[in-house]
Amino acid sequence: MNDAEFVTPIGNRGMYVLDTASWRTHRPVMDNDLCISCGMCLGYCPVNSIRWSEESGYYINYDYCKGCGICAAECPRGAISMEHEGGADDGK
C-alpha cells in the first residue's frame, strides 16, 4: 500500500486501515472466461478487495486482498484460483 494514512472520525486519533495485503502468501487469480458475473466473490470478500467496473467487469484489488481464499471457495464456476504469491503454485 502507499504511505497515506487513512483516518476515520473515531476517537482522538481515528482508526487506520490495516495493510492486509502484507501478510498474503497466496493470491486469487480470476479467469474472466469462466466468470458469470454473479457477484458472489464480491459479497463474500471480507476486506472488499473485489471490485466491479463497466469496462473490465469483476477484478481484484491486490492492495487490500489478504489472500484468504474465501472468494475462490464461494465461486460457483471455479473462476477464481489461488496461486502462490510468487507466481503459479509450485507446492512450496
What does this structure look like?
11% of the residues lie in helices and 20% in strands. By secondary structure, it is α+β, with helices and mostly antiparallel strands. Strands 1-4 form a two-stranded antiparallel sheet. The protein has a two-stranded antiparallel ribbon with strand order 2-3. Strand 2 and strand 3 form a beta hairpin. The two termini are 25 Å apart.
What is the element string, with H for helices and E for strands?
Answer: EHEEHE
SS content category: alpha+beta
Molecular shape? globular
The parts where pLDDT drops under 50 for at least 5 residues are: none
Measured on Cα atoms, how large is the radius of gyration? 15 Å
Count of discrete alpha- or pi-helical segments spanning 4 or more residues: 2
| Largest sheet geometry | 2 strands, antiparallel
Quick structural gist:
By secondary structure, the chain is of the alpha+beta class. 11% of the residues lie in helices and 20% in strands.
Write the layout of secondary structure elements.
Blueprint: E1 26-30, H1 40-44, E2 50-53, E3 57-60, H2 70-74, E4 80-84
Antiparallel strand pairs: 1-4, 2-3
